[in-house]
Write a structure and sequence with these properties.
heterodimer; A: alpha+beta; 2 domains; B: six-stranded mixed sheet; four-stranded antiparallel sheet; 30% helix; globular; binds adenosine-5'-diphosphate; binds magnesium ion
Chain lengths: 300, 249
Protein backbone atom coordinates (compact mmCIF):
# COMPACT_ATOMS: atom_id res chain seq x y z
CA UNK A 1 0.00 0.00 0.00
CA UNK A 2 1.11 3.54 -0.48
CA UNK A 3 3.08 5.27 2.21
CA UNK A 4 1.01 8.42 1.78
CA UNK A 5 -2.19 6.64 2.74
CA UNK A 6 -0.53 5.30 5.81
CA UNK A 7 0.86 8.70 6.74
CA UNK A 8 -2.59 10.24 6.40
CA UNK A 9 -4.15 7.65 8.66
CA UNK A 10 -1.33 8.12 11.22
CA UNK A 11 -1.82 11.86 11.03
CA UNK A 12 -5.52 11.46 11.70
CA UNK A 13 -4.68 9.28 14.68
CA UNK A 14 -2.10 11.81 15.95
CA UNK A 15 -4.60 14.65 15.67
CA UNK A 16 -7.11 12.55 17.57
CA UNK A 17 -4.50 12.13 20.28
CA UNK A 18 -3.89 15.88 20.44
CA UNK A 19 -7.58 16.67 20.60
CA UNK A 20 -7.80 14.19 23.45
CA UNK A 21 -5.68 16.36 25.76
CA UNK A 22 -5.65 19.90 24.37
CA UNK A 23 -4.28 21.60 27.49
CA UNK A 24 -1.35 19.34 28.00
CA UNK A 25 -0.56 19.63 24.31
CA UNK A 26 -0.73 23.41 24.51
CA UNK A 27 1.73 23.42 27.41
CA UNK A 28 4.09 21.18 25.46
CA UNK A 29 3.89 23.38 22.39
CA UNK A 30 4.52 26.51 24.44
CA UNK A 31 7.52 25.08 26.29
CA UNK A 32 8.98 23.95 23.00
CA UNK A 33 8.33 27.41 21.56
CA UNK A 34 9.93 29.10 24.58
CA UNK A 35 13.00 26.91 24.53
CA UNK A 36 13.44 27.17 20.77
CA UNK A 37 13.08 30.95 20.73
CA UNK A 38 15.56 31.38 23.55
CA UNK A 39 18.03 29.01 21.96
CA UNK A 40 17.59 30.94 18.73
CA UNK A 41 18.04 34.31 20.41
CA UNK A 42 21.16 33.22 22.23
CA UNK A 43 22.58 31.76 19.06
CA UNK A 44 21.93 35.06 17.26
CA UNK A 45 23.37 37.18 20.07
CA UNK A 46 26.44 35.01 20.08
CA UNK A 47 26.71 35.14 16.32
CA UNK A 48 26.28 38.93 16.17
CA UNK A 49 28.86 39.48 18.90
CA UNK A 50 31.27 37.26 17.01
CA UNK A 51 30.82 39.29 13.85
CA UNK A 52 31.53 42.45 15.83
CA UNK A 53 34.69 40.94 17.26
CA UNK A 54 35.86 39.91 13.83
CA UNK A 55 35.43 43.48 12.64
CA UNK A 56 37.11 45.00 15.66
CA UNK A 57 39.86 42.43 15.45
CA UNK A 58 40.69 43.33 11.88
CA UNK A 59 41.02 47.00 12.74
CA UNK A 60 43.11 46.21 15.79
CA UNK A 61 46.65 47.57 15.73
CA UNK A 62 49.55 47.86 18.13
CA UNK A 63 51.47 51.14 17.98
CA UNK A 64 55.10 50.81 19.00
CA UNK A 65 56.51 54.30 19.73
CA UNK A 66 60.28 54.56 19.39
CA UNK A 67 62.60 57.12 20.84
CA UNK A 68 62.82 60.18 18.54
CA UNK A 69 66.49 59.75 17.67
CA UNK A 70 66.51 56.03 16.99
CA UNK A 71 68.71 55.36 13.96
CA UNK A 72 67.16 53.88 10.81
CA UNK A 73 69.17 50.73 11.15
CA UNK A 74 67.90 50.04 14.66
CA UNK A 75 64.33 50.67 13.54
CA UNK A 76 64.81 48.11 10.77
CA UNK A 77 66.05 45.55 13.31
CA UNK A 78 63.10 46.05 15.63
CA UNK A 79 60.69 45.88 12.69
CA UNK A 80 62.19 42.58 11.58
CA UNK A 81 61.79 41.16 15.06
CA UNK A 82 58.14 42.23 15.30
CA UNK A 83 57.41 40.70 11.93
CA UNK A 84 58.47 37.30 13.23
CA UNK A 85 55.40 37.00 15.46
CA UNK A 86 52.71 34.92 13.83
CA UNK A 87 49.86 37.12 15.09
CA UNK A 88 51.26 40.07 13.14
CA UNK A 89 49.90 40.50 9.66
CA UNK A 90 51.69 43.64 8.57
CA UNK A 91 54.14 46.18 9.97
CA UNK A 92 54.09 49.74 8.78
CA UNK A 93 56.96 52.06 9.67
CA UNK A 94 56.17 55.74 10.13
CA UNK A 95 58.92 58.37 10.27
CA UNK A 96 58.78 61.23 12.80
CA UNK A 97 57.42 63.48 10.08
CA UNK A 98 54.73 61.05 9.02
CA UNK A 99 53.68 60.62 12.63
CA UNK A 100 53.52 64.36 13.10
CA UNK A 101 51.41 64.66 9.96
CA UNK A 102 49.06 62.00 11.29
CA UNK A 103 48.73 63.77 14.61
CA UNK A 104 48.10 67.10 12.94
CA UNK A 105 45.09 65.60 11.22
CA UNK A 106 43.77 64.35 14.54
CA UNK A 107 43.92 67.77 16.15
CA UNK A 108 41.43 70.62 15.85
CA UNK A 109 42.60 73.11 13.15
CA UNK A 110 41.69 76.00 15.48
CA UNK A 111 44.06 74.63 18.03
CA UNK A 112 46.87 74.44 15.46
CA UNK A 113 46.51 78.11 14.49
CA UNK A 114 49.91 79.78 14.74
CA UNK A 115 51.46 76.73 16.30
CA UNK A 116 55.04 75.87 15.50
CA UNK A 117 55.42 72.64 13.54
CA UNK A 118 57.92 71.36 16.08
CA UNK A 119 55.33 71.74 18.84
CA UNK A 120 53.20 68.99 17.32
CA UNK A 121 54.38 65.66 18.71
CA UNK A 122 55.99 63.29 16.27
CA UNK A 123 58.26 60.32 16.66
CA UNK A 124 59.10 57.17 14.74
CA UNK A 125 56.30 54.60 15.05
CA UNK A 126 55.90 50.99 14.01
CA UNK A 127 52.22 50.21 13.44
CA UNK A 128 51.43 46.50 13.66
CA UNK A 129 48.30 45.19 12.02
CA UNK A 130 47.14 42.05 13.72
CA UNK A 131 45.65 38.92 12.28
CA UNK A 132 41.87 39.18 12.59
CA UNK A 133 41.44 35.54 13.36
CA UNK A 134 41.81 36.08 17.07
CA UNK A 135 39.86 33.00 17.98
CA UNK A 136 39.61 33.44 21.70
CA UNK A 137 40.39 35.50 24.68
CA UNK A 138 43.44 33.32 25.30
CA UNK A 139 45.06 34.52 22.06
CA UNK A 140 44.31 38.09 22.98
CA UNK A 141 45.97 37.71 26.38
CA UNK A 142 49.02 36.20 24.73
CA UNK A 143 49.26 39.24 22.45
CA UNK A 144 48.91 41.64 25.37
CA UNK A 145 51.70 39.79 27.12
CA UNK A 146 53.87 39.91 24.02
CA UNK A 147 53.22 43.63 23.58
CA UNK A 148 54.43 44.14 27.16
CA UNK A 149 57.68 42.42 26.25
CA UNK A 150 58.25 44.77 23.30
CA UNK A 151 58.24 47.63 25.74
CA UNK A 152 61.32 46.19 27.40
CA UNK A 153 63.25 46.38 24.12
CA UNK A 154 65.86 49.10 24.02
CA UNK A 155 64.83 52.18 21.98
CA UNK A 156 61.11 51.40 22.46
CA UNK A 157 59.46 54.18 24.35
CA UNK A 158 55.87 53.09 24.61
CA UNK A 159 53.47 50.48 23.31
CA UNK A 160 49.81 51.43 22.75
CA UNK A 161 47.39 48.59 22.42
CA UNK A 162 43.70 49.23 21.81
CA UNK A 163 42.67 45.97 23.36
CA UNK A 164 40.39 47.24 26.07
CA UNK A 165 37.23 47.33 23.97
CA UNK A 166 38.02 43.93 22.63
CA UNK A 167 38.56 42.57 26.11
CA UNK A 168 35.15 43.84 27.15
CA UNK A 169 33.54 42.22 24.16
CA UNK A 170 35.18 38.95 24.91
CA UNK A 171 33.87 39.13 28.44
CA UNK A 172 30.34 39.86 27.18
CA UNK A 173 30.62 37.04 24.70
CA UNK A 174 31.64 34.64 27.43
CA UNK A 175 28.69 35.63 29.57
CA UNK A 176 26.31 35.20 26.66
CA UNK A 177 27.83 31.85 25.98
CA UNK A 178 27.65 30.44 29.47
CA UNK A 179 24.27 31.89 30.38
CA UNK A 180 22.92 30.91 26.97
CA UNK A 181 24.16 27.35 27.16
CA UNK A 182 22.85 26.80 30.68
CA UNK A 183 19.48 28.46 30.06
CA UNK A 184 18.99 26.74 26.71
CA UNK A 185 19.86 23.39 28.24
CA UNK A 186 17.37 23.90 31.06
CA UNK A 187 14.64 25.00 28.67
CA UNK A 188 15.29 22.20 26.22
CA UNK A 189 15.20 19.72 29.07
CA UNK A 190 11.87 21.08 30.28
CA UNK A 191 10.47 20.97 26.75
CA UNK A 192 11.60 17.35 26.48
CA UNK A 193 9.99 16.67 29.83
CA UNK A 194 6.64 18.15 28.81
CA UNK A 195 6.47 16.27 25.53
CA UNK A 196 7.62 13.13 27.34
CA UNK A 197 4.81 13.58 29.87
CA UNK A 198 2.08 14.35 27.33
CA UNK A 199 2.99 11.26 25.37
CA UNK A 200 3.18 9.14 28.55
CA UNK A 201 -0.26 10.31 29.57
CA UNK A 202 -1.61 9.81 26.07
CA UNK A 203 -0.30 6.24 26.08
CA UNK A 204 -1.80 5.66 29.52
CA UNK A 205 -5.13 7.14 28.45
CA UNK A 206 -5.13 4.91 25.37
CA UNK A 207 -3.99 1.67 26.95
CA UNK A 208 -7.28 -0.10 26.14
CA UNK A 209 -7.19 1.16 22.59
CA UNK A 210 -3.58 0.04 22.29
CA UNK A 211 -4.51 -3.38 23.61
CA UNK A 212 -7.28 -3.72 21.05
CA UNK A 213 -5.03 -2.61 18.20
CA UNK A 214 -2.44 -5.13 19.29
CA UNK A 215 -5.02 -7.94 19.51
CA UNK A 216 -6.22 -7.07 16.03
CA UNK A 217 -2.76 -7.60 14.62
CA UNK A 218 -1.29 -4.10 14.61
CA UNK A 219 2.50 -4.12 14.66
CA UNK A 220 4.30 -2.23 17.46
CA UNK A 221 5.43 0.35 14.91
CA UNK A 222 1.88 0.89 13.73
CA UNK A 223 0.85 1.56 17.32
CA UNK A 224 3.83 3.79 18.01
CA UNK A 225 3.58 5.94 14.90
CA UNK A 226 0.70 8.20 16.00
CA UNK A 227 2.45 8.95 19.29
CA UNK A 228 5.71 9.81 17.54
CA UNK A 229 3.74 11.99 15.14
CA UNK A 230 2.05 13.67 18.09
CA UNK A 231 5.51 14.60 19.40
CA UNK A 232 6.59 15.77 15.97
CA UNK A 233 3.48 17.92 15.55
CA UNK A 234 4.00 19.47 18.98
CA UNK A 235 7.58 20.25 17.95
CA UNK A 236 6.48 21.72 14.63
CA UNK A 237 3.80 23.88 16.24
CA UNK A 238 6.34 24.96 18.87
CA UNK A 239 8.78 25.95 16.14
CA UNK A 240 6.12 27.95 14.30
CA UNK A 241 5.17 29.78 17.50
CA UNK A 242 8.87 30.45 18.18
CA UNK A 243 9.40 31.83 14.67
CA UNK A 244 6.41 34.13 14.98
CA UNK A 245 7.56 35.32 18.43
CA UNK A 246 11.14 35.97 17.39
CA UNK A 247 9.90 37.54 14.15
CA UNK A 248 7.74 40.01 16.09
CA UNK A 249 10.67 40.77 18.38
CA UNK A 250 12.81 41.34 15.31
CA UNK A 251 10.35 43.86 13.86
CA UNK A 252 10.12 45.61 17.22
CA UNK A 253 13.91 45.82 17.49
CA UNK A 254 14.26 47.04 13.93
CA UNK A 255 11.79 49.83 14.58
CA UNK A 256 13.60 50.75 17.78
CA UNK A 257 17.01 50.89 16.14
CA UNK A 258 15.69 52.97 13.25
CA UNK A 259 13.34 55.36 15.03
CA UNK A 260 14.91 55.77 18.44
CA UNK A 261 18.63 55.34 17.84
CA UNK A 262 18.47 56.57 14.22
CA UNK A 263 20.93 53.91 13.19
CA UNK A 264 21.13 52.36 9.74
CA UNK A 265 22.17 48.93 10.98
CA UNK A 266 20.16 45.83 10.21
CA UNK A 267 19.97 43.69 13.29
CA UNK A 268 19.13 40.17 12.28
CA UNK A 269 17.39 37.94 14.79
CA UNK A 270 15.83 35.64 12.28
CA UNK A 271 17.94 34.82 9.25
CA UNK A 272 16.46 32.21 6.88
CA UNK A 273 18.95 29.65 8.17
CA UNK A 274 17.59 30.06 11.67
CA UNK A 275 14.01 29.54 10.46
CA UNK A 276 15.11 26.32 8.83
CA UNK A 277 16.93 25.21 11.96
CA UNK A 278 13.87 25.81 14.09
CA UNK A 279 11.54 24.05 11.66
CA UNK A 280 13.80 21.01 11.63
CA UNK A 281 14.84 21.17 15.28
CA UNK A 282 11.31 21.45 16.69
CA UNK A 283 9.97 18.21 15.22
CA UNK A 284 13.24 16.42 16.01
CA UNK A 285 12.93 17.51 19.62
CA UNK A 286 9.33 16.28 19.69
CA UNK A 287 10.08 12.92 18.14
CA UNK A 288 13.03 12.43 20.48
CA UNK A 289 10.93 13.12 23.58
CA UNK A 290 8.09 10.98 22.32
CA UNK A 291 10.45 8.15 21.44
CA UNK A 292 12.03 8.32 24.90
CA UNK A 293 8.58 8.26 26.41
CA UNK A 294 7.46 5.23 24.43
CA UNK A 295 10.69 3.43 25.20
CA UNK A 296 10.31 -0.23 24.48
CA UNK A 297 6.55 -0.22 25.05
CA UNK A 298 4.18 -2.28 22.91
CA UNK A 299 6.43 -5.29 22.58
CA UNK A 300 3.37 -7.36 21.46
CA UNK B 1 -7.69 -25.44 12.30
CA UNK B 2 -7.08 -25.21 16.05
CA UNK B 3 -5.32 -28.02 17.92
CA UNK B 4 -4.22 -28.14 21.53
CA UNK B 5 -1.91 -30.90 22.76
CA UNK B 6 -1.41 -31.37 26.49
CA UNK B 7 -1.69 -27.66 27.05
CA UNK B 8 -1.14 -26.39 30.56
CA UNK B 9 -1.00 -22.79 31.66
CA UNK B 10 0.11 -21.65 35.09
CA UNK B 11 0.09 -18.03 36.18
CA UNK B 12 2.54 -16.62 38.68
CA UNK B 13 5.90 -17.71 39.98
CA UNK B 14 6.93 -21.30 40.62
CA UNK B 15 5.52 -22.55 43.89
CA UNK B 16 2.82 -19.90 44.26
CA UNK B 17 1.31 -20.42 40.83
CA UNK B 18 -2.35 -20.73 39.77
CA UNK B 19 -3.14 -23.47 37.29
CA UNK B 20 -5.55 -21.97 34.74
CA UNK B 21 -5.38 -24.80 32.21
CA UNK B 22 -4.38 -28.34 33.01
CA UNK B 23 -3.35 -30.78 30.27
CA UNK B 24 -6.01 -29.78 27.74
CA UNK B 25 -6.32 -31.67 24.44
CA UNK B 26 -8.78 -30.48 21.83
CA UNK B 27 -9.22 -29.67 18.18
CA UNK B 28 -11.57 -27.38 16.32
CA UNK B 29 -12.09 -28.08 12.65
CA UNK B 30 -12.27 -25.51 9.92
CA UNK B 31 -15.76 -24.05 9.60
CA UNK B 32 -16.86 -25.40 12.98
CA UNK B 33 -18.87 -23.55 15.58
CA UNK B 34 -17.82 -24.37 19.13
CA UNK B 35 -19.02 -23.22 22.52
CA UNK B 36 -16.45 -23.16 25.26
CA UNK B 37 -18.16 -23.29 28.60
CA UNK B 38 -17.60 -23.83 32.27
CA UNK B 39 -17.94 -21.85 35.48
CA UNK B 40 -16.14 -18.61 36.09
CA UNK B 41 -12.44 -19.24 36.59
CA UNK B 42 -12.51 -22.46 34.55
CA UNK B 43 -9.90 -21.17 32.11
CA UNK B 44 -12.00 -20.11 29.10
CA UNK B 45 -10.42 -16.66 28.74
CA UNK B 46 -6.98 -18.13 29.29
CA UNK B 47 -7.53 -20.54 26.42
CA UNK B 48 -8.53 -17.69 24.13
CA UNK B 49 -5.48 -15.65 25.21
CA UNK B 50 -3.26 -18.61 24.38
CA UNK B 51 -4.72 -18.79 20.87
CA UNK B 52 -4.00 -15.08 20.39
CA UNK B 53 -0.49 -15.46 21.84
CA UNK B 54 -1.28 -12.90 24.54
CA UNK B 55 -0.05 -15.57 26.91
CA UNK B 56 2.42 -18.38 26.34
CA UNK B 57 1.73 -21.99 27.27
CA UNK B 58 3.52 -23.35 30.31
CA UNK B 59 3.70 -26.73 28.60
CA UNK B 60 2.16 -28.45 25.60
CA UNK B 61 1.52 -27.12 22.10
CA UNK B 62 -1.02 -24.88 20.40
CA UNK B 63 -1.31 -25.36 16.65
CA UNK B 64 -3.20 -22.96 14.41
CA UNK B 65 -3.49 -24.24 10.86
CA UNK B 66 -0.88 -26.85 11.72
CA UNK B 67 1.69 -24.38 13.00
CA UNK B 68 3.00 -24.31 16.53
CA UNK B 69 2.20 -20.71 17.37
CA UNK B 70 4.36 -20.50 20.45
CA UNK B 71 7.42 -21.16 18.38
CA UNK B 72 6.71 -17.93 16.50
CA UNK B 73 9.05 -14.99 16.86
CA UNK B 74 7.54 -11.90 18.51
CA UNK B 75 7.56 -10.00 15.23
CA UNK B 76 5.32 -12.63 13.66
CA UNK B 77 2.62 -12.48 16.30
CA UNK B 78 0.71 -9.53 14.74
CA UNK B 79 0.47 -11.52 11.51
CA UNK B 80 -0.85 -14.54 13.38
CA UNK B 81 -3.49 -12.36 15.05
CA UNK B 82 -4.74 -11.11 11.70
CA UNK B 83 -6.25 -14.56 11.19
CA UNK B 84 -8.58 -13.95 14.13
CA UNK B 85 -11.47 -11.67 14.84
CA UNK B 86 -12.01 -11.02 18.54
CA UNK B 87 -15.11 -9.99 20.47
CA UNK B 88 -15.26 -9.33 24.21
CA UNK B 89 -17.89 -9.07 26.90
CA UNK B 90 -17.27 -5.35 27.39
CA UNK B 91 -17.26 -4.55 23.63
CA UNK B 92 -13.97 -2.61 23.85
CA UNK B 93 -14.97 -0.10 21.25
CA UNK B 94 -12.63 2.89 21.01
CA UNK B 95 -14.52 5.88 22.32
CA UNK B 96 -12.46 8.50 20.51
CA UNK B 97 -13.50 6.99 17.19
CA UNK B 98 -17.01 6.90 15.80
CA UNK B 99 -18.78 3.67 14.86
CA UNK B 100 -17.46 3.76 11.30
CA UNK B 101 -13.85 4.28 12.36
CA UNK B 102 -14.12 1.50 14.93
CA UNK B 103 -15.17 -0.98 12.29
CA UNK B 104 -12.46 0.34 9.97
CA UNK B 105 -9.55 -0.32 12.38
CA UNK B 106 -8.66 -3.73 11.01
CA UNK B 107 -8.45 -2.39 7.46
CA UNK B 108 -6.36 0.56 8.60
CA UNK B 109 -3.96 -1.89 10.21
CA UNK B 110 -3.63 -3.59 6.83
CA UNK B 111 -3.21 -0.17 5.21
CA UNK B 112 -6.05 -0.68 2.75
CA UNK B 113 -7.19 2.22 0.57
CA UNK B 114 -9.89 4.49 1.94
CA UNK B 115 -12.37 3.70 -0.82
CA UNK B 116 -12.19 -0.03 -0.03
CA UNK B 117 -12.67 0.80 3.63
CA UNK B 118 -15.71 2.95 2.94
CA UNK B 119 -17.31 0.23 0.84
CA UNK B 120 -16.58 -2.70 3.14
CA UNK B 121 -17.49 -0.88 6.38
CA UNK B 122 -20.67 0.39 4.74
CA UNK B 123 -21.64 -3.18 3.84
CA UNK B 124 -20.99 -4.44 7.35
CA UNK B 125 -22.91 -1.62 9.03
CA UNK B 126 -25.82 -2.36 6.74
CA UNK B 127 -25.61 -6.05 7.59
CA UNK B 128 -25.88 -5.30 11.32
CA UNK B 129 -28.55 -2.66 10.70
CA UNK B 130 -26.52 0.26 11.97
CA UNK B 131 -25.74 2.19 8.81
CA UNK B 132 -27.66 5.14 10.26
CA UNK B 133 -25.35 5.22 13.26
CA UNK B 134 -22.07 5.25 11.30
CA UNK B 135 -20.96 8.54 12.80
CA UNK B 136 -22.35 8.04 16.27
CA UNK B 137 -20.03 7.79 19.24
CA UNK B 138 -19.77 4.33 20.80
CA UNK B 139 -20.91 6.00 24.03
CA UNK B 140 -24.33 6.62 22.51
CA UNK B 141 -24.93 2.99 21.54
CA UNK B 142 -27.01 0.51 23.49
CA UNK B 143 -25.29 -2.69 24.64
CA UNK B 144 -26.75 -4.72 21.81
CA UNK B 145 -25.71 -2.15 19.22
CA UNK B 146 -22.22 -1.89 20.66
CA UNK B 147 -21.71 -5.63 20.51
CA UNK B 148 -22.93 -5.73 16.91
CA UNK B 149 -20.41 -3.03 16.06
CA UNK B 150 -17.71 -5.06 17.85
CA UNK B 151 -18.62 -8.09 15.77
CA UNK B 152 -18.52 -6.06 12.58
CA UNK B 153 -15.11 -4.76 13.62
CA UNK B 154 -13.91 -8.33 14.21
CA UNK B 155 -15.15 -9.44 10.79
CA UNK B 156 -13.97 -6.53 8.68
CA UNK B 157 -11.01 -8.41 7.19
CA UNK B 158 -12.92 -11.70 6.90
CA UNK B 159 -10.80 -13.58 9.44
CA UNK B 160 -10.61 -17.36 9.31
CA UNK B 161 -11.53 -17.65 12.98
CA UNK B 162 -13.88 -15.60 15.16
CA UNK B 163 -13.13 -15.73 18.90
CA UNK B 164 -15.78 -14.44 21.28
CA UNK B 165 -15.10 -14.21 25.02
CA UNK B 166 -18.43 -13.95 26.88
CA UNK B 167 -19.97 -11.89 24.09
CA UNK B 168 -23.37 -11.82 25.80
CA UNK B 169 -22.17 -11.24 29.34
CA UNK B 170 -23.42 -7.66 29.42
CA UNK B 171 -26.64 -8.23 27.47
CA UNK B 172 -30.17 -9.28 28.40
CA UNK B 173 -31.43 -12.71 27.16
CA UNK B 174 -33.19 -11.34 24.07
CA UNK B 175 -30.16 -9.36 22.91
CA UNK B 176 -27.91 -12.30 23.77
CA UNK B 177 -29.96 -14.50 21.49
CA UNK B 178 -29.67 -11.96 18.67
CA UNK B 179 -25.90 -11.73 19.07
CA UNK B 180 -25.48 -15.51 19.01
CA UNK B 181 -27.75 -15.66 15.97
CA UNK B 182 -25.47 -13.16 14.26
CA UNK B 183 -22.43 -15.23 15.18
CA UNK B 184 -24.10 -18.38 13.85
CA UNK B 185 -24.79 -16.58 10.60
CA UNK B 186 -21.11 -15.68 10.38
CA UNK B 187 -20.28 -19.35 10.94
CA UNK B 188 -22.73 -20.45 8.23
CA UNK B 189 -20.75 -18.32 5.79
CA UNK B 190 -17.67 -20.39 6.54
CA UNK B 191 -15.88 -18.74 9.44
CA UNK B 192 -14.67 -20.98 12.25
CA UNK B 193 -16.20 -19.68 15.48
CA UNK B 194 -15.28 -20.22 19.14
CA UNK B 195 -17.64 -18.69 21.70
CA UNK B 196 -16.66 -18.77 25.37
CA UNK B 197 -19.71 -18.40 27.57
CA UNK B 198 -21.00 -19.66 30.87
CA UNK B 199 -24.61 -19.13 29.76
CA UNK B 200 -25.93 -22.72 29.68
CA UNK B 201 -29.39 -21.69 28.48
CA UNK B 202 -27.93 -20.05 25.41
CA UNK B 203 -25.90 -23.13 24.55
CA UNK B 204 -28.96 -25.29 25.03
CA UNK B 205 -30.88 -23.15 22.59
CA UNK B 206 -28.27 -23.10 19.85
CA UNK B 207 -26.96 -26.58 20.35
CA UNK B 208 -23.55 -26.48 18.75
CA UNK B 209 -20.55 -28.52 19.79
CA UNK B 210 -19.72 -27.69 23.40
CA UNK B 211 -16.41 -28.05 25.21
CA UNK B 212 -16.68 -27.81 28.97
CA UNK B 213 -13.79 -26.71 31.17
CA UNK B 214 -13.71 -27.07 34.91
CA UNK B 215 -10.80 -26.01 37.06
CA UNK B 216 -8.65 -25.81 33.97
CA UNK B 217 -9.42 -29.34 32.79
CA UNK B 218 -11.48 -30.25 29.73
CA UNK B 219 -14.25 -32.36 31.27
CA UNK B 220 -16.70 -32.75 28.42
CA UNK B 221 -16.81 -32.52 24.63
CA UNK B 222 -20.35 -32.77 23.36
CA UNK B 223 -20.66 -32.66 19.61
CA UNK B 224 -24.28 -32.44 18.57
CA UNK B 225 -24.05 -30.86 15.20
CA UNK B 226 -20.96 -32.18 13.55
CA UNK B 227 -20.62 -30.42 10.27
CA UNK B 228 -17.51 -32.30 9.23
CA UNK B 229 -14.62 -30.40 7.75
CA UNK B 230 -10.95 -31.11 7.80
CA UNK B 231 -7.86 -30.34 9.77
CA UNK B 232 -6.10 -28.54 6.98
CA UNK B 233 -5.15 -24.92 7.11
CA UNK B 234 -7.48 -23.95 4.29
CA UNK B 235 -8.78 -20.40 4.62
CA UNK B 236 -5.97 -19.38 6.93
CA UNK B 237 -3.37 -17.00 5.69
CA UNK B 238 -0.18 -18.01 7.41
CA UNK B 239 2.02 -17.28 4.45
CA UNK B 240 3.30 -14.00 5.83
CA UNK B 241 3.96 -15.16 9.35
CA UNK B 242 7.69 -15.40 8.86
CA UNK B 243 7.97 -12.17 7.00
CA UNK B 244 7.14 -9.34 9.40
CA UNK B 245 8.49 -6.76 6.96
CA UNK B 246 6.09 -7.79 4.23
CA UNK B 247 3.42 -5.51 5.56
CA UNK B 248 5.61 -2.43 5.41
CA UNK B 249 6.21 -2.88 1.70
N1 LIG C 1 -3.24 -12.72 34.58
C1 LIG C 1 -3.53 -13.64 35.52
N2 LIG C 1 -2.69 -13.78 36.57
C2 LIG C 1 -2.95 -14.71 37.51
N3 LIG C 1 -3.99 -15.54 37.50
C3 LIG C 1 -4.86 -15.44 36.47
C4 LIG C 1 -4.67 -14.47 35.44
N4 LIG C 1 -5.68 -14.62 34.55
C5 LIG C 1 -6.47 -15.62 35.02
N5 LIG C 1 -5.98 -16.12 36.17
C6 LIG C 1 -6.53 -17.21 36.92
O1 LIG C 1 -6.63 -18.31 36.06
C7 LIG C 1 -7.85 -19.01 36.26
C8 LIG C 1 -8.65 -19.04 34.98
O2 LIG C 1 -9.08 -17.73 34.66
P1 LIG C 1 -9.85 -17.38 33.33
O3 LIG C 1 -9.13 -17.99 32.20
O4 LIG C 1 -10.07 -15.94 33.30
O5 LIG C 1 -11.23 -18.13 33.55
P2 LIG C 1 -12.64 -17.88 32.90
O6 LIG C 1 -12.47 -17.01 31.71
O7 LIG C 1 -13.13 -19.23 32.55
O8 LIG C 1 -13.49 -17.25 33.94
C9 LIG C 1 -8.56 -18.27 37.39
O9 LIG C 1 -8.28 -18.97 38.59
C10 LIG C 1 -7.94 -16.93 37.40
O10 LIG C 1 -7.91 -16.40 38.71
MG1 LIG D 1 -13.37 -15.16 31.28
Amino acid sequence: MSATLRLISFLRAALRLMRGSPWLNAVSVLTIAASLSLCGLFAMAFFNAHTLIDELGSSLTIQVYLEPDTPEERIGQIEARLREHEGVKRVRALSSEADRERNRKLLDPALLEGLDDEAIPGQPVLALELDSSLASRGDLEALVHWAGQIEAVEAVEDVAFGAERLRLLFAVLEIIRSVGVVLSAVLLASALFFVFTTVRLAVWGRRREIEILSLMGATPNFIRAPFLLEGALQGLLGAVVAIVAVGLLHLELEGLVRDVYLLQVQPSLLPPGMVLWLLVGGPCLGVLASGLSLGRAFKV
Amino acid sequence: MIQLYNVSKRYGAEGASVTALDDVNMRVREGEMVFLTGPSGAGKSTLIRLLLCVERVSSGQVLIGGRNVHALRDESIPYLRRNFGVVFQDFRLIETRDVFDNVAIGMEILGLPRKDIVRRVGQLLEAIGLQERAHASPRDLSGGEAQRVAIARALVNEPAILLCDEPTGNLDPQLSREIIQLVCEVNRRGTTVVVATHDAALIEEFGARTLTLKGGRLVQDRDRADRGGDMLAGGLDLSRLDDPMAEIE
